[in-house]
Amino acid sequence: MHERSIIHLNVADFAVAVERAVDSRLRKRPVIVAPGGAARAAVYDMSDEAYQQGVRKGMLLRRALCYCRDAAVLPPHPERYEHAMTRFYKHVLPYSPLIEMTDHNGHLFIDATGTGKLFGPPPDVAWRIRKTVRADMGFDPIWSVAPNKLVAKVATRLVKPAGEYIVQTGDEEAFLRPLPLGLIPGIESQDLKRLQEFYLTYAGQVANLSLDQLSVVFGRSSRSLYDAVRGIDPSPVVAITKKQPMVKADHEFGNDTNHVPVVEATLYRLIEQAGTQLRWRRLATKRIRILLDYSDGRRTARQTAADPPTANDFRLFALAKPILKRAWTRRVRIRHLRLICDRLVYPAAQMELFPADEAKNKASDNLITALDAIRRRFGWNAIGVGRTIVS
């Protein structure tokens, strides 16, 4: 049986790295990614230069600018970061079927166990990926190779913002012993505070304690703590499942807004875009999802089932409007609105049970067909619906 070889790739300060790839003038200067329009805007991400001056994630922007007055402040663009993460993932895909994307912030785990005959030793694979990503995307990923995910993640934290680290099998506990407990993932903040009460601040100090001793203080969580400080992590690299077909439509507001008519009009235009794609592909959706990105970088999402499946704009909007209301629970302005129609199927051929419903739905479908025909011939803006007009 092969010894496990887990590669961890980490693009440090991912949002900043993406923004610098878009605008090279931002390189080698302090950058803070935070919404500028919100009264209590919090730092979404920051460059290493800003970090060295005291800026931290979640810090209020006005406080961050007191520490780093010359920083360039950019609004967050979650859609841009997701797109960059997808490209990053595609560079890794040829080397292993087991690739785990834990978030959209530049982290990837790769299980390279048993792939040596195809691609060479795991460190060579990591170097090759780093070289390709740097040439194509302008990023310089940190990488590590270790026997498990926990140790691999700690190793990349040690060499941030740039570098590489290799931990051999059997060296996990020795590698972790001199490190502060805050570097080890999986230890909850309340457990860290409790450990500090006993003057335990390093992994080696906790590793000197037996499981029974830890159980006296930490109870059920003692096992995970016992394993974490020894570098024991049997969790597998969970492969990203094949994406299901979907239709997406996005809108980024030029000026962040919380004006209800503007947001609802935008939602209807997204519905029209998605509905047109569905009808062109002769498909219907069984589920609608709405994602809202606020000015302060937070995101909310809600969804609902479409039963029966539909591709009709009017019926899609009737389903989407209530979930917009459920998702929109904050007073903070909205920066980005996304509509997703997935679980796509062929439209049902079943007839309506009641004649009145059949006549109403047929009239609605005929109207949508007429709108499609006009737009195909004269362009998208040739005709519109009144609710999309906002003064």
Automatic annotation (TrEMBL):
Read off the PROSITE patterns from this record. UMUC (PS50173)
Family matches, as SUPFAM superfamilies: DNA/RNA polymerases, Lesion bypass DNA polymerase (Y-family), little finger domain
Give the record's GO biological process terms: DNA repair; error-prone translesion synthesis; SOS response
Q: Where is the UmuC domain?
A: 6-188
Q: Which GO terms describe its molecular function?
A: damaged DNA binding; DNA-directed DNA polymerase activity
* Gene3D superfamilies linked to this entry: 3.30.70.270, 3.40.1170.60, 5' to 3' exonuclease, C-terminal subdomain, DNA polymerase, Y-family, little finger domain
| InterPro entries reported for this sequence | DNA/RNA_pol_sf (IPR043502), DNA_pol_Y-fam_lit_finger_sf (IPR036775), DNA_pol_Y-fam_little_finger (IPR017961), DNA_polymerase-Y (IPR050116), Rev_trsase/Diguanyl_cyclase (IPR043128), UmuC (IPR001126)
Provide the Gene Ontology terms for cellular component.
cytosol
Q: Which Pfam families match?
A: IMS, IMS_C
Similarity-based family: Belongs to the DNA polymerase type-Y family.
Annotated protein name in UniProt: UmuC domain-containing protein
